Amino acid sequence: MVVESRDWFPKQTLGSLPAHAKARWGDREALVVGDQRWTFRALDAEVDRVAKGLMAVGVAPGEHVALWMTNRAEWIFLMFAVAKVGAVLVPLNTRYRTADVGYTIRQSHASTLISLDRSGPIDYIGMLDEALPELKTSAPLALSAKEYPKLKRVVLVSDDHVHPHQGTLAWNDLLERGARISDAALAERAASVDPDALLVIVYTSGTTGDPKGAMHSHVVIRNVTDCANRLGITLDDVILNYLPMFHTYAYSSCAMMSLLTGAKQVVLDTFEATRCVQLIERERGSILHGFDTHFRDIMDAQKELRKDLSSLRLGTFPAGSDSSRPIAERTQTELCPTVSGYGMTEVWTFSAISFPSSTVEQRIGASGFPSVGYEFKIVDPETGQEQAAGCAGEILMRGYMVTQGYYERPEATAQAIDQDGWFHSGDTGMLRADGHLQFIGRYKDMLKVGGENVSPAEVEGYLLLHPKIAQIAVVGVPDARLSEIAVAFVVVRPGVAASEQEILDHCKGKIASFKVPKRVFFVAELPATPTGKVQKHKLRDRACELLGK
């Protein structure tokens, strides 16, 4: 008998997920934003309304739609609606300012920009006026901007529900236009979407240069499905989503996860620890996601509020580096068990993730166990020689989730992905004897002090145990005798003062002498990219300036 071959993992499109969720869990709650609530049935209807609106204003298959918006219900509807009409989403960081957003819109060839008019003190429309002066003289849907030849239309979401600005289309107008599109026309468009086609272009942080747009297809669904199965996410779970939606972390582990598993998603516009604690109690939250700062702040807020957080079941907390261990250890006893993981924009989230049944040490001391469909190897970055278990080197990955490449950046793509399909991460790590990956730090951040390798993350992790330190970054600067020396930049907690000697005394006799920073500089804040990653190259330059190097 001949058996017809088929893909072992069925291909789906992101835009089809709301309808599938409606069919399975129609009247269960799917989404909570503030005091508003949607069932899976209602969420599917909103996605269709938005999809029809996009069709009505002329968004064509394959066009790029840039989205510049804080977490809100419209973000959720749009991510699925853009996919349903076969367009490509370009999420923009809400910390972008005029130059950042201008570069990304131009480089991504976005034809449509959808944005808020403002959010709290942030005046988005003011920045758009500066980047797009033609808005003031253009008719809605007929933008002609010299610096952005591909950009045709700007849609603004406003909580005032009035026409927001000359040259833009109001969100409500988009929805009204969409009412003229038939269900049959939308269904025909959705059916034509290729699951192997480009779905999203996500921009990297750009710590040392312009951000690069990593391209991914609808295959991201497989990654999230595998993660859901590993974590045991079910329709009884409630996911708290306070991470920014423009990051793959929230996009996958919150929004996509909800539609694939039936779990309820509770969305906050921004992270605020007190609100998180209150919502965990109110909504019986069971799943948390985040990094050390999120978990630390939630635990500190709970000490003050003392809410009922017994519903918490599991958190995902990418750990493994020395800097994350103190908070990870505290989280296990004060909040909930967590699993660790590793991922990058170019290979998506949780290319490695531990199991809830892994040991505590594996869940906080490592960075996950490789996910199905991913290969890892560790190589000497100088020679390319593969390293044995337990030996550090550069982390390389290969598999179905490696980016299709950087949009319109063929040279950067060739530098990152070799001829055998291995993605070179630029991260230092090792594969342990138990098969777990351990992330150590960025390769370029490693220091060589008097011939000894020093991990800045290790030093940062120890110094974060000091009760007065809120944030810290350790960088290396040239030294005539030792080749490099470590220098620390410290942000102290509000309302306290600390001295350089106090910080140095905290290290002496506790960590190896060659790891102890030679100088400590106090700063109000650490320079960061729009995605929040510390720009260590700026700190190195500043340290050299202060030390006369």
How is the secondary structure organized here?
Elements: H1 17-25, E1 29-33, E2 36-39, H2 40-56, E3 64-68, H3 73-84, E4 88-91, H4 98-108, E5 112-116, H5 124-131, E6 153-157, E7 169-170, H6 171-178, H7 183-191, E8 198-203, E9 213-217, H8 220-231, E10 238-241, H9 248-261, E11 264-267, H10 273-283, E12 287-289, H11 292-305, E13 314-316, H12 325-334, E14 338-339, E15 341-344, E16 348-353, H13 360-365, E17 369-370, E18 374-379, E19 393-399, H14 410-416, E20 423-431, E21 437-442, E22 447-449, E23 452-454, H15 456-463, E24 469-479, E25 483-492, H16 500-507, E26 519-522, H17 536-547
Parallel strand pairs: 1-11, 3-4, 3-5, 5-6, 6-7, 10-11, 12-13, 13-14, 25-26
Antiparallel strand pairs: 1-2, 8-9, 15-16, 16-17, 18-19, 19-20, 20-21, 22-23, 24-25
Helix pairs in contact: 1-2, 1-9, 2-3, 2-6, 4-5, 8-9, 10-11, 11-12
What characteristics describe this protein?
549 residues; alpha/beta; four-stranded mixed β-sheet; 17 helices; globular
Helix percent reads 25-40%
Main sheet: strands, sense, barrel: 5 strands, parallel
Give the terminus-to-terminus CA distance: 76 Å
Strand runs, count: 26
Helix and strand composition category = alpha/beta
What proportion of the residues form beta strands (DSSP E)?
15-25%
The dominant shape is globular
Sheet with the most strands: spatial strand order: 4-3-5-6-7
Could you tell me the mean pLDDT? 92
Count of DSSP-assigned helices: 17
pLDDT < 50 stretches: 1-6
Computed over alpha carbons, the radius of gyration is 24 Å
